[in-house]
Amino acid sequence: MELAGAITIFLGIYLSCLLVISTWRKHSRYKNLPPGPTPLPLIGNFLQIKMGDTLKSLERLRDQYGPVFTVYFGSKPIVVLCGHEAVKEALVDQAEEFSGRGAMPTVEKNFQGHGVVFANGERWRQLRRFSLTVLRNFGMGKRSIEERIREEAQYLLEAFRNTKAEPFDPTYFLSRAVSNVICSIVFGNRFDYEDKEFLSLLQMMNESFREISTPWSQFYDMYSSFLKYFPGPHTKIYHILEDMRKFIAKRVKQNQATLDSSSPRDFIDCFLIQMEKEKKNPSSEFNTTNLVLTTLNLFFAGTETVSSTLRYGFLFLMKYPEVEEKVHREIDHVIGRHRVPASEDRMKMPYTDAVIHEIQRLTDIVPLGVPHTVIRDTQFRGYTLPKGTNVFPLLGSVLRDTKYFSSPEEFNPGHFLDENGRFKKNEAFVPFSSGRRVCLGEGLARMELFLFLTTILQRFALQPLVAPKDIDVSPRMSGFGNVPPTYQLCLVPR
Ligand code: HEM
Prior knowledge:
Blueprint: H1 2-27, H2 54-65, E1 68-73, E2 76-81, H3 83-93, E3 100-101, H4 105-111, H5 121-137, H6 143-161, H7 171-186, H8 196-211, H9 215-227, H10 234-258, H11 267-277, H12 288-319, H13 321-334, H14 350-363, E4 372-373, E5 378-380, E6 383-385, E7 390-393, H15 395-399, H16 442-459, E8 460-464, E9 477-478, E10 482-483, E11 489-493
Parallel strand pairs: 2-7
Antiparallel strand pairs: 1-2, 3-4, 4-7, 5-6, 8-11, 9-10
Helix pairs in contact: 4-10, 6-7, 6-16, 7-8, 7-12, 8-10, 10-12, 11-12, 12-14, 12-16
The structure holds protoporphyrin IX containing FE (HEM).
C-alpha cells in the first residue's frame, strides 16, 4: 500500500514537471525550435539515443522528424542537421550565424574556451587568422612541407622494412610519421621513432581520442552539468590532456629562453613574437594560455585524424584486394617503382585519388561533426534558433547521403569517378566539414594522405592475417570519433 502511494506521488510530481516543462517551452525563447521527440524532465531524450551508437540513433529520428530536428541532452536543446542540403544551408549559406563553436563538455575543463578549436568570437578570429598564416608561412600547401612529408615517408619506409614482413600493429608506425610532420611546424623538429617521450605523447593522444568516443563520454556530454561534480571516466580525459598541456608548456618555456625574434623556428616562436608585438593591446588574444592550447589543438588535430584515416585505409585495401591491386598498377604506371611520389602526381592518378576520397568518406572520422553554435538569434528553415543554441552538423549523414552516393554503405571508389575513369568531385564529400570553421589543416592532411599512401604502396603490398571476407571494418568505437579497429598485418616488399 505504502509503495503504491509512493509511486502515485512520484508519478504525480513527474507528470506535473512534464506539464510545467511543456508550458515553459511554449513560452520560452526556445518556443520555435525545430520539432523533435518530447523530452522528459531531467533526462531529456535519453530514451531515444543509444549510447555508443549516437549517429544511428539520430538518423532514426530524422526518419520521423525530417532532416532538421531538436533533441534534448538533459535539459539542453541540440539542433541536429542531417544530410548534405541541411548542413550546407547552415554552415555555408548562413556561414556567419553558424560559425560559433558549441559546447564539448568532455574537454571543457581543459580548454575553457581557449585555443583555436574551442574559442569563439574575437578570440577565435585572431587565433584562426594567425594559425592559418603561420601554417602557410611554414609551408602548408607549398613545396617546403611537401619535402618534409616525403622525407618523413622515407623514415617510415625504413621502419616498415625492419618489420621483415612479419605481422605487426601499424598504429604507432603511422602516428609517429604523421605527427612528425606537424611537430616540424609547431615545435621546429621531428622526433626519433625511438624517443620515449614522443611515443608516450602519441599513446596519450590515441587514448584520449578513444576516451572521447566512448559511450560514457556521450553520456557525460548529456549530463555534464550534474556529473562534473563526481569522479568518473571523464576525469581520465582531463588528466591525459593536462599531461599533454604540461609537455607543451615546457616546450614554450624552452623556446622563450632561446628565442631569436629575427628568425622564428616554429609556430611557438611566431606566437611568442606576436605576443611581444601586441603586449600593449588590451584586446589582444596573444597570451600564453592561447599559445599553449592552440599548439595542443594543432598537435592533436594534426596527428590523430590523418593517422587514424591511414590505419582505416589499410584495412579497406586489405578487405578489397582488387582495389589495392589497381592502385599498385596506377602507381607503377604514373610514378614507377623508383622515383619518390610527389603531390603533382595526384592529377594523373584519378583512381588513387578516388580511393583516398572513398577511404575518408567511410572512415568518417568525426561522424557527428564538431559541435557548432549560432552566434546570434537565427532564422533557419522557418524556425528560430536563439543565440547560443548548440548545433550538430552530422557529417556522417552527409558522407552517406543517398542523394549523392549511389551505394552509401559500400566501399566503392566509383563514387568519385566518371564513366571515363576521370576523377569526379562530389559536393557531399565533407570529412573536413565546411563553412567558416572548416578544418584548418585540410591542405596539409590531403597532401599527407596522398604522399604517405602512395609511398607505402609503391614499395609494399598489404597482407592481412585473415581472409579478406573476414575483415571486419566496423569501427571499434563510434562516438565523437570513429575509432578504427585494432589489427595486425604484414607488409610484403614488392
Ligand atoms: C584526415 C584529416 C582531418 C580531418 C578529417 C579533419 C576534420 C576536421 C573537422 C571535421 C573539423 C571541424 C570543423 C567544424 O567545426 O565544422 C576540423 C577542425 C579543425 N582541424 Fe582538422 N581534420 C583533419 C586534419 C587536420 C590537420 C592535419 C590539422 C592541423 C593542422 C587540423 C587542424 C584543425 C583545426 C585547428 C580545426 C579547428 C578549426 C576551427 O575551429 O576554426 N586538422 N577538422
